[in-house]
Amino acid sequence: NGDRPIKYINCIGDIETLRKNLFINTENWTPFKNGSLQGHIMEEEKDTCLSILLSGLDPPEFARYLKDIIEKLGIKLNVVHGPSYIDITQEGVDKAYALKTFSDKMGIKLENITGVGDGKNDIPMLKNVGLPAAPINAISEVKGIIRDKGGYISEKPIGKGFLDICKFIINFKD
């Protein structure tokens, strides 16, 4: 479809190039070793990005390694790490971009949208919504943004935190 703001074909080709260089799969943990970096990696299946789950690897160090590979391959991808994962997305496209695209198409102002996130990759989105929210397991930088914007931080983690946030939104009064 020609009106898609995200150029999936280019991004998916770049992600496939990176995937082939990492020898990664979605079925099993793959041993990884490169100098002092060693542990296991596994791909989490997603449609528009590459998410790599890490075991025994330092996320910031592995992110630097991936950025070097991406630069050497001459492809354009963005690398963001969380506490135990790496998300690799199309350069210039993040959750804030997607939400803005959705907002424009639906005619809903960003200040009337709630964004929920817990990691570094959620920060641009959380800065742009009217009500940012997070489960208790969110990183401190995310919690700081939410507090600064008067958002909601659940006392529960992960999925239970998300459910708690949904209940908060349903009962929210201006």
Summed up:
Helices cover 41% and strands 22% of the residues. The protein is of the alpha/beta class and 174 residues long.
Order of helices and strands: HEEEHEEHEHEHEH
Globular, elongated, flat, extended or rod-shaped: what is the shape? globular
Total DSSP helices: 6
Helix content: 40-55%
Largest sheet composition: 5 strands, antiparallel
SS class? alpha/beta
Span of the ends, CA to CA: 39 Å
Please provide the count of β strands. Answer: 8
Verbal overview:
By secondary structure, the protein is an alpha/beta fold. The chain has six helices and eight strands; from the N terminus they run αβββαββαβαβαβα. The strands form two sheets. Strands 1-2-3-5-4 form a five-stranded antiparallel sheet. It has a three-stranded parallel sheet with strand order 6-7-8, sandwiched between helices.
Structural key phrases:
174 residues; alpha/beta; 5-stranded antiparallel β-sheet; 3-stranded parallel β-sheet; 6 helices; 8 strands; 41% helix; 22% strand; globular
Layout of helices and strands, plus pairs?
Blueprint lengths: L7 H15 L7 E5 L2 E8 L5 E6 L3 H15 L3 E5 L3 E6 L4 H12 L7 E3 L6 H6 L2 E4 L5 H9 L3 E2 L4 H14 L3
Parallel strand pairs: 6-7, 7-8
Antiparallel strand pairs: 1-2, 2-3, 3-5, 4-5
